[in-house]
Amino acid sequence: MSAIADRQDHSLQELDRLAELAGEVIRRARAAGASEAEVAASIDTGLNVNVRLGEVETVEHTRDRGFGLTVYFGRRKGSASTADLNPESIQATLDQACAIARYTEEDPAAGLADPARMATDFPDLDLWHPWAIDTAQAIALGQRIEAAGRAHAGITNSEGASVQAGESLSVYANSHGFVGRERGTRHSLSLSLIAGEGERMQRDYWYDSVRAPGDFMGAQALGDKAAERTLARLDARGLSTRECPVLFAPEIARGLVGHLVGAVSGGALYRRASFLLDHAGKAVMPPWLNIVERPFLRRGHGSGAFDAEGVATRDSALVEGGVLARYVLGSYSARKLGLESTGNAGGIHNLVVEPGSAEGTAEDFAGMLRRLGTGLLVTEVMGQGVNTLTGDYSRGAAGFWVENGAIAYPVEEITIAANLRDMFAGIRAVGADVDPRSAILTGSILVGRMTVAGE
Fold first, then answer.
1. Which of 46, 54, 69, 366 sits 20 to 30 Å CA-CA off 420?
2. Using CB atoms within 10 A of its CB, is residue 328 exposed (0-12), middle (13-18) or buried (19+)?
3. Distance between CA atoms of residues 371 and 375, nearest Å
């Protein structure tokens, strides 16, 4: 039996225990002279099974604990952490954090978030769905997924199927008196396949990621999807260098939105390392385009009532009518910029890119291909060629050449390049084919013109 399937659900009691420990350590930190203190404690439990060619490759059970403490002596900060929750280790962590704080330089931006911004409402966001699957069942599921994919004619090998079940408990507490408890589950299935032989060989994959196991696509459907994607890449060609419209598939399009988030995040801004520096209130995208943060989506991958500092989250536009409505800030970066936290310490909470176009239509994937007309569909990007300072974008890519709204043939070994500023401004449409497997929820994104470098 797995650790997940074999035990009763004691998550609420464990959260209470973590909260009690966090409160006690904060009291001891204050007694040691700290003016402020905060604790983040977590317990993560998981089962991970990998199957290849019908045989078990790995079985991994995890139970990881973390305890991080930050103390402030005025504006001097010290942090320490441990994976051991025994009293001796906790005391050593406290002593180390206090010692560090006493000898560090003062930082005017250091300190806890504003106490008036602490979350007070903690709705049930339906994030807790333990998967009662044992090791034997996980192996059998992985074998079914892989068998479904390998059954397709033309599939010549497999890199394996993976079945993962995970539970996470976390508590954040600080000396303002705030105590926030969170529990969530994340489960995933994946399959990677190979088609063809020798120089014709191609690899592709598919996966699903959910909060609740009942939301998974079926084993057969996942195997079919991985096989279809892999077989579609056979006989891929190169392209001559050209300029053309580019359609980013939904799972790739969310990376573009991620580049926007990175450029408007506090760290890049106060270091003056962003091409969108001083762009709040300015147009960065077409006037029909809206991007909204929605922290309270039920079963959302990024849902949460508070951020990593206890600040209450809220529904809030990031891009409204094409205009950058705000930055993405925690308390430290906000103070460095002379602004206020946006409740984004630790990251974003479900960023929704609303489907649409200048004509007001929101189309499915087939409709987005028709809108592309003749150009490049990108289904994979490679390399790290994105410069947040300048906005220059240049990455290896693979996908499909599209003619008259229909896929003509697969392409590989090409590079796509432009500047993110021009790419964002040149978005022609966002599809309704939303990929739900991430905290960035977007459909495919059509960019009007990029350089495609090939042969």
1. 366
2. buried
3. 10
